[in-house]
Design a protein that fits this description.
The complex is a heterodimer of chains A (459) and B (477). Chain A is mainly alpha-helical and 459 residues long. Chain A has 19 helices and two strands. Classes of the chains: A mainly alpha (459), B mainly alpha (477). Chain B: Keywords: Membrane, Oxidoreductase, Transmembrane, Transmembrane helix.
Amino acid sequence: MNTLIAIGVLAVLVLIAEIINLRKLVIPMTIIGLVGILGYTVCNIDVEVSYYNNMFITKKFSNAFSSLFIALTIFLVALSKDFYQKEFSKISDYISLKLFLLMGAICMVSFGNMAMFFLGLEILSITLYILCGSDRANIKSNEAAMKYFLLGSFASGIVLFGIALVYGATASFDISEIITITSQGTLPIWYSLGVVMIIIGMLFKIAAVPFHFWAPDVYQGAPTLTTAMMSTLVKVTAVATLFKLSFHLLRQMPEGYITAIVVIAILTMTVGNIMALRQENMKRLLAYSGISHAGFMMMALTALNTSAANLFYYATAYAIAGIAAFTVLMAVTKGKENQLIQSFSGLGKRNPLMAIVLSIALLSMGGIPIFAGFFGKFFLFSEAISKGFITLVIFGVINSFISIYYYLKVIIVMFTNNDETAEETALSIPLSYKIVGVLAVAINIIIGLCPSILLNIFQ
Amino acid sequence: MNVTILLLTLLVGAIATYISGKKPAAKVALLFGLVAFVETIVLICQHNAGTDAGYMTQWISNPNIHIALKADGLALALTLLTTALTPIIIFSSFGDHIEKSNIFYSLVMFMSFAMTGTFLAADGLLYYVFWELSLLPIYFIALLWGNDTFEVRKKAILKFFIYTFAGSLFMLVGFIYLYSKTGSFLLQDLYNARLTGTEQYWVFLAFFLAYAIKIPVFPFHTWQASTYEKAPTVGTMLLAGIMLKMGLYSVIRWQIPITPIAAKEVMPTILVLSIIGVVYGSIVALKQANIKRFFAYSSLAHVGLIAAGAYTLTLDGMKGAVLQMIAHGFVIVGLFFVGEIIYRRYQTRMIGEMGGIRQQAPKFASIFMILMFASIGLPGTFSFIGEFNILYGLSQINLWYAVIGGTTLIFGAFYMLRMFQKAMLGETNAKPFADLNTKESIILGVLAIVIIFLGIYPKPLADLITPSLVEIVSYIK
């Protein structure tokens, strides 16, 4: 709770800084504040307390994910200075929106009450709608915001309806009470209906197939930094929340639920990957690859009792690699109309550092050993095999090498050295991008070499 | 001393090479390569004296993964192959103009590190990590420094990467499945896993995909020739000389002892596939105009025979396979270097455009001849020992396998001599051909001496590997 309050205060301070004309201080202040909050959260990771009549409960799960969200936000804020160079006058708006979004994300993984969950979901969604449309002059950004808003609010509506049905069946919003009631006896049919609606709403948020149609357009249209946020922070938040919801609401998992999750997971990773194969636009490619990663993360939903650590590891590995990839994307496509993969050609010569960062990020996403992505997949696969989901793992494996194909395609383009259209001039990159890119890759390799750092949190 | 020092030497070598800058890179890499070679010799002496140079520590507690390195005779023999060939390969490229040479040699050293790790690893997951790591450097070496235009070679290299990566992922699934049964990735625990026949069958198949692609066994060989052709010669040497031995070694080290029942059951099928590879490779080699593709297909034939030897499950067959792995490593590196020497002088790899070199370069011609006879498996060369053992092992299963597999000798003699005739003999070539310079003579001389010495006196190597193989055969029974 202290974490949440501190972030809220920080966000307000950012807005105040604007009023008293300390705009230049906004980003350093936010980063220092967030680092402090991250330190506090990590130190108190084992503390389990509940606040305000169980509205808000901190547990290992929620603390671990909150720390991840804060860390990701630090990266995203660090990138903001150079990304919003042209509209620096609005910087405090952007930063405070990101902080509010972070608050929403933390509420979503720490809720103890369905009302709190919905509140978090809405805080997160509404700030995201604004950020999507923040590039007002760009028609694509407007389109993205509109599309996301319409579909997102529809999904929120479904979630809300689901919560109402669950309330109707259990007469409570409180998670612990709902758990007691569900374990006591038969429930009316609308309980399962409500749970299904909540889960569908969340599947929409993580862009699982068949609820994924909004994602590529929105990702492509939104400003790149917002896309980075959506495909790392928001996606991970949604998956973690889905995991937590299923964990609480589906104590005895019905057979049909598991089958449905397995089918959706397989569909999500396969459709995401196959669509990614044909993309020419890097943002769309990352969007589709993000969809397939959501499918991988859904593998954790098949073993709710044992998979929290695996999910956390995968989410961290994916999000960190995503940050690195988007950093390079932003650096390369700065000031360009579109983000074609072709614009990466010759990057190996123009800026070897960024080429290496992107290569490592993509290889990690593809699951090549020593990078964190490999162990992420490995832990999910081993859990699934020990639970007997061989088919799911086989599909996971097939998808892994489909995905390596398009990741390698990008890497090849970067190291193309005989393309005449490639710009030969060295590409200068702001320091903040370099730091974020290198740091993200370093973290990726460190947690790849010692996965125990993250796994032991949950023991 | 223990094997971690060897691995660290190679890794530090890779980093030092990168840092050292473009000019001294090749020399730094060579230096570290030679140090690693000396260390391997020391390790082998230690091993013969009875000290265990293995290493084990916990890496991740849950799941239970160790950093376990096992330095028995078999692993050390293959390590020796790697660390002996690495400096030779590096030295062979001295004087070539290589762009960004520090990155290039650093990748070579890193690949050597990963391959040595693969041979030494005794924990399934560590082994898998090294196995995949060795794929990355060769991918970049072939992609960035390869022959032909970028557009053409990127297709071949991409195919190679996806192919091998796909195969190894199935191996990973096999390992995870084994882990879910035994709770450990350690080699020894996996040997004692006691799987049922059906389970063994599936695990065997998962491993087989990875190895059959890497070795390559017919019909999984389609990546091979074009990758060898497009990769720079250093990369081709690494691939043909060492990397494909990873697959063969893994068959003996991991696949067969873990799934002996399945191995016995599918043995006939795999023997047939391997022998098809032998015959197919030989026939296709005959038609190749490009000398690199020619060696690639000849390699396919030889490797098919080695695979057949490993899958006989007999001590003789396996011993022959391991000896032949090492022999083939030295011979094929020599042959690719011969191709490179001709390319340096004539700027062509087409056999048809060569001819009449012998009169101009007698030294070169004689060493080429030694290598060629070694490749054919003439008695007195190292290859003969290996091939003889393999054929003997095959004959214990069924005489016909040995007879058909033995055609590799006849076919080999035919296509090799024909190539030699076209490339080296005939009327003196109008284009001048300088004889070997000092560097080239050193490399080819060393290779020729190794091949002939071990051909006459293979006992030290055979003694080194036999105890490990006896142990492995004991798991089969």
